[in-house]
Amino acid sequence: MKRILTGIKPSGTIQLGNYLGMIKEVIEMQNKYEVLLMIADLHAQTVPYSPKELKEITLDIAKSLVALGVNPNKTILFKQSDVPAHLYLYWILGCLVNEGDLRRMHEYKEQKEKYKDEVGTGILMYPVLMAADILIYNADLVPVGKDQEQHLELTRELARKFNKTFKKFFKIPEIYIPQETAKIMSLTNPYKKMSKSEPEGCLEIFEKEQIIKEKIMKAVTDSEKEVKYDPLKKPAISNLMTIYKHLTKKSYKEIEDEFKGKGYYEFKLTLYEAFINFFKEARRLKNKISNKQIERILNKGAIKANKIANENLKKILKIVGLR
Ligand code: ATP
Ligand code: MG
To answer: Are residues 79 and 163 in the same domain?
Structure first.
């Protein structure tokens, strides 16, 4: 059976882009494959953070994932920091990676520009940890949003390099990026991706209804008033239409027909209703999950993940001459 691995950083609460770009794919895949889904708490340490919040957000994200449909009896849901083998492999791969390749990463450049000297070298090295997260399980496939493609290419490159330098051990993991929802854009800037670390332009799935409504109604739109799908000329409304399409399963043509002669205001109001309707059940379920219950789920996940990771680590240590 194919093994899938992916992750989400506890850097804020789950936003719609996370759901449409990655989570909905995982929910599909868990019925066919062995899925490992990690809460990447070590990745969240790469930028300034509050320890208390990190703990709270980690549990909140885990609850959200379960409420959205991640089934802990099928998917191995765990915390990255619970599996020390990731860090061992991170060091081994870190000794293979080219510094220049890390400095080329878009996310590194953006974050470094944003935080300047407030961040340490974790922000530079984090793609190596991400490679280790994936390779320690010898995963076949990694479902991610478009923004993670460059990091995944690096993971593939490091797997090849390890195999060439030492011995063929790692599979070269395939990248899986959904077609239409690979990059949901911010509500405040249609040229920037929606990110949970930038809540202004972000539709947080479990946010208060009133705030979701305000954010949608205030979302930037394009010139003219027509609800028409044209990502080049009308990027803002096209982004909202992509969201609406995936919440309602309507085609772009059906959406254009539905709003013919109507304006952005009516469209946004309908989008808000579709959003609330789509996530109603998840929002209800999340409130019923206690901290104790979710901690139990994460502990069980950690036991399973450690078992796979440690078996591979043993072999890797032999290959590289440490055992
Ligand atoms: P941060 O701002 O802290 O980086 P994020 O919203 O980008 O948060 P991540 O935890 O980095 O979330 O990513 C989790 C998954 O969601 C990844 O697979 C990522 O590619 C995907 N993803 C993130 N944002 C979007 C988006 N706007 N559209 C589609 N997929 C996305
Ligand atoms: Mg991100």
So the answer is: yes
**pTM for this one?**
0.98
**Any idea what the CATH number is for the domain that residue 227 is in?**
1.10.240.10
Q: What single letter denotes the amino acid at residue 294?
A: I
β-sheet bridge partners, residue 175: 142
Contacts of 148 (CB under 8 A, 6+ apart): none
Distance CA 297, CA 66 (A): 10
**Nearest bound ligand to the CA of residue 144:** 1
Residue from 11, 16, 18, 54 to probe ligand 1 pocket by mutation (most atoms less than 8 Å from CB)? 18
pLDDT tens for 144-193 read 999 999 999 999 999 999 999 999 999 999 999 999 999 999 999 999 99
Q: Is residue 193 part of a domain?
A: no
Pair 244, 268 in one domain:
yes
**Of the residues 196, 245, 268, 286, which is catalytic?**
196
